Amino acid sequence: MSNNKENNLHDKMIQLTNSFNQLDFIDDQKSEEILWLGYRYEHGIGIGVELDKHKAFTHYLKSAVAGNSMGIFKVAICYRYRVGVEKNEVKFYDWIKIWFDYGKCAHCNEDNTNEAWCQTCDPDIAIQGWTSGNKVIDNSIKRFQLRIFEYERMIEWIPFDRLDNIKKIVEGGYGSVFSATWLDGIRKIESNWNYSTYTYTRTREPSSTVALKALSGSRENSLDFLKEFDRHMKCTFLDSKLKIYGLTQNTETKKYLMVFQFANNGSLHKFLRKNFQNLTWQIKLNLLQDISYDLLQIHAAGYIHTDFHSGNILLDEDINKNMRSSFSDLGLFKTACKGSSEGGIYGVIPYVAQEVLSGLKFTKAADVYGFGIIMSEISTGQRPFDGRPFDSILLLDIFRGLRPGFAPGTPDCYIELAKQCLSSDPQKRPKALDINEKLYEWNKIMNNSDNANDIKKQFLYADKIIKTLPIISPKYPDQMYTGKMINTLAK
Ligand SMILES: [Zn+2]
Question: Is the pTM of this model over 0.70?
Answer without folding.
Answer: no
